[in-house]
Amino acid sequence: RTPYIYLFQGFWCQPAEIQAITTFQKHFQAKESDVFVATVPKSGTTWLKALTYAIMNRQNHFISSKNHPLLSFNPHDLVPFIEYTVYGKHDTIPDLSKIHEPRLFGTHIPFDSLSNSIKGSNCKIVYICRNPFDTFISSWTFANKIKPPSLPTLNLEEAFEMYCNGLVGFGPFWNHMLGYWNESKERPKNVLFLKYEDMKEDLKFHLKKMAEFLDRPFTLEEESEGVIENIIKLCSFEKMKGLEINNTGTFGRNFENKFLFRKGEVGDWSNYLSPSMVEKLSKVIEEKLGGSDLNFRVK
Ligand code: A3P
User: Fold this and answer.
1) Interior/surface letters 49-69, b for 16+ CB within 10 angstroms, e for the rest
2) Atom of ligand 1 nearest to the CA of 240
3) pLDDT above 50 (res 62)
4) Gap from CA of 29 to ligand 1 centroid (Å)
5) Interface ipTM
6) Taking every annotated instance into account, which residue ranges of this chain make up the domain Sulfotransferase (predicted)?
7) Using alpha carbons only, how large is the chain's radius of gyration in Å?
8) What is the DSSP letter of 228?
9) Is 240 in the pocket of ligand 1 (CB under 6 A)?
């Protein structure tokens, strides 16, 4: 059913990605000012990219202006957001010298497989993690939307078994999460570990945390001018889902932007998973993550 997914350096990915990743590992030179948004697919990448971009560029583009780039670009297509995974299809990486600093990158690559240049530098990595129940449902529904018509629909039970065995793009999810989780404990100034559920609950608090982590704390003046509230509105699920670009455009390998915005809720898994599936995934989580202090809110 999935002949095109391979175990590479301990994680699952597609052949086209292997060349890109290898090239980056060999040639990418990190700069101290680089910012990476790192995620497991379907855990809030689009949202986190939009928030990071809005924080980093708030001086350049007045956040509530009608011309703000987030109103006409999907976050994955924003310049200078560069998708680490899809560049470097050949043996060299593209010329990044013209990208203005700080450079923003997005990646799904597990921490251990980032280039040494990134791991050894002082650049910042913002990671978002989402509870595996919702991430699974989001990824299963997404996979069926983007699959070529020639492939049969992936049924829930089959996809669930694969997910519990770690067989999902850039998975197993537990290794991915633990890689960044452990690094965030060791180097909290370089890796910020966020949770989708926490962000949904109190985004203002987490935006301030992100801005401080990125060495761009909100000033009292910005706070009183409502800059944080404006970023929250600009990047909200409703706002982003309603934009024309996100209803008509495409990203990556010609996937429709609209597939990136489904429900944006915590707990939708309860509409899909049977009690035995919940029990099984809970056991997997306990077995794989129980030894760490990483936990999730699931509703
Ligand atoms: P659901 O499928 O559960 O709705 P990614 O961006 O990593 O592909 O993740 C996609 C998930 O994030 C989808 O979850 C999507 O609806 C949700 N999402 C997209 N934009 C969002 C936003 N602005 N706020 C909250 N969630 C968002």
Assistant:
1) bbbbbbbbbbeeeebeeeebb
2) 23
3) yes
4) 30
5) 0.99
6) 33-292
7) 19
8) H
9) yes
